[in-house]
Amino acid sequence: MSADDPEKKGRALQLILDAWDKALAEGAEAEVIASVAIYAALADMVDRYGQDAVAEFCATLPDRTRRGEFTLGANEP
């Protein structure tokens, strides 16, 4: 499976959402979970791809967000 495999991405997203729900159930605040999740993702990406590549990726986020790419359920039929 490639990194772009929709099945692989869907499974990974479900695992993350399950962990998110567990953290909420244990009393963590959503804003704290979100901040820590973003930090962890960016730190891993910097380790893998370098600071410049990650900064370029982050520069694409405003437009992608406005297009609804990160709205859960927005791309479902």
From TrEMBL:
It comes from the Bacteria. This is Uncharacterized protein. It comes from Candidatus Viadribacter manganicus. The lineage of its organism: Bacteria, Pseudomonadati, Pseudomonadota, Alphaproteobacteria, Hyphomonadales.
